[in-house]
Design a protein that fits this description.
The complex is a heterodimer of chains A (67) and B (149). With 67 residues, chain A is mostly helical. Helices cover 55% and strands 9% of the residues of chain A. Chain B contains five helices and no strands. The chains are: A mainly alpha (67), B mainly alpha (149). Chains A and B meet through helix 2 and helix 3 of A and helix 1, helix 4 and helix 5 of B.
Chain lengths: 67, 149
């Protein structure tokens, strides 16, 4: 299997006018975590993915997708 | 401390940790190059304050890889500084250092040497590069994680 995980976190965050720090505050993680998820360096846990989706009022499937 | 401030404060601390870890490791390596605290030209491992200082220095540096300290900042900031990403970076750096230590130890065992190496010298040769590698890798991974954009 050679699937690649992509995410639309940066776009969704920007669409709602949040900074990385503001989203980090909402999700209760560090700004570093938001930054690494956005850049594809860090694949978040299921719990974090669900919290991100909830904070951005969207679904996990909308935020993360396999290519 | 308000939530927003906690996030920003943790970010600042994480950045300082990168600089501090890098500086401490470079200083540690520089001291090894200058002082070579364990080796002696007559073939016997040195003992005394300098070699014990090396052991103390390496031990303290290795503590930087553990998610401890910062108790004055409060629990929330500590958790943000040592979050999921930092813990993963620490594990990655430690795993790399483990392999470097194993390769060094095997090389010491297998490769011919001009003279016999004492246990203390062997420990020094294994621990020094592995410690430096772990810390510099951790600092680099953290720096990459903190990079804006």
């Amino acid at each position: 299997m050679d699937d690649r995980l992509e995410n639309r976190l940066r776009e969704e965050r920007a669409r709602r006018g949040y900074t990385q720090a503001q989203l980090a505050e909402l999700v209760n993680v560090s700004r570093k975590t938001i930054n690494t998820v956005e850049n594809g360096i860090f694949i978040p846990s299921t719990v974090l993915a669900l919290r991100l989706a909830k904070a951005l009022d969207t679904t996990v499937e909308e935020l993360f997708l396999l290519r | 401390m308000e939530a927003r401030n906690a996030v920003e404060f943790a970010d600042r601390i994480a950045r300082r940790r990168v600089i501090g870890t890098t500086a401490a490791t470079v200083a540690f390596l520089a001291v090894q190059l200058v002082a070579r605290p364990v080796f002696r030209s007559d073939g016997y491992a040195a003992s005394g304050p300098r070699s014990y200082m090396w052991a103390l220095n390496a031990g303290v540096l290795l503590l930087l890889l553990l998610p401890i300290g910062g108790y004055v900042w409060g629990r929330r900031v500590r958790e943000l500084v040592n979050d999921e990403v930092s813990r993963r970076n620490s594990r990655t750096a430690t795993a790399g250092a483990f392999w470097l230590a194993m390769i060094t130890a095997l090389a010491i065992y297998v490769l011919p040497t001009v003279r016999d190496i004492s246990a203390r010298e062997a420990a020094y040769l294994v621990v020094t590069p592995a410690t430096a590698f772990a810390l510099l890798t951790f600092a680099w991974l953290e720096s990459r994680a903190l990079r804006d954009g």
